[in-house]
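User: What would this chain look like folded?
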Amino acid sequence: MPLDLVGGGVLNKFTAILNPCIYIVFGGMAIWAIYLAGFGNIVHYVPANVQTGGNSLFLFLVVINAVVAVWAAPAVSASDFTQNAKNFKAQATGQTFGLAVAYVLFAVASVCILAGASIHYGTETWNVLDIVQKWDSLFASIFAVLVILMTTISTNATGNIIPAGYQIAAIFPKKLTYKHGVMIASIISVLICPWKLMENQASIYLFLDIIGGILGPVIGVMLAHYFIIMKRNINLDSLYTEPGQFSYYKNGFNSLAFIVTIVAVIISLSGKFIPALEPVSRLSWFVGVIVAFGAYAFFASLHRKKNPSFYEDTTEKLETEINI
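Assistant: Here's the prediction, encoded as structure tokens.
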């Protein structure tokens, strides 16, 4: 495919066409499942393999941790998605309806579809494709499979390929463009065989725990630096062209940020190696964010007290400010 046929513009058009089809398929399947199984039966349905013991609040947080970990990469690269927004309100509104509202709607629809189909067919399933294959209508089955396939491609392109493309290009900015980064990320994503990570529930949670434990600390450091240390004032020109003026940069790197991130990653994933700390790793994203945020805010604040002039130059003598 020629390079001029790929990019955010094509993805936006593709998503605009796909979105109505997604709501038609999943909304229709939810109505179909409720009609066959009954909403009351769906609400009270408990799969045989669901863990019922233990602290319900902890189990709820484990699920939330997995959900957040799915979007951990886009959260780190939020600027890649908001850079073309007209203002803060526009991107905040878009993310609220695109993530929060849509997530709730699809969560409810997914529960209705899976539980309703399990009740109707008498066989527990967590794969929507298994349900579609049992339909009598060939047209409906083909249409649903195509929409699910295209949705998978669209979601992964938005949530995984775009951030990876920018990050890979940033490693060698003089030699690689964003499009090169996307192509490299696509090749790597096939080589690591991600479908092996989706084989069962245990592998899915293991993968998401690791992703959350790695990217959670990154987000924690970013939040602490922006809100606590820089007090929401950043000179973009100086940030990208004159990193040497900041005392916390050594040879172009923020050593404290790297150290805090690595330590927080080790702590958040410690339960994978130490059984007694397993609950910590089950909440890897939350632990990583909290530990990294607290540690970076503390040590960076100490550094700021010893070197106030470096921070004053970046907050008072601004020609370009972002005030959110």
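The longest strand covers residues 249-250. If you want, I can go into more detail on any region.
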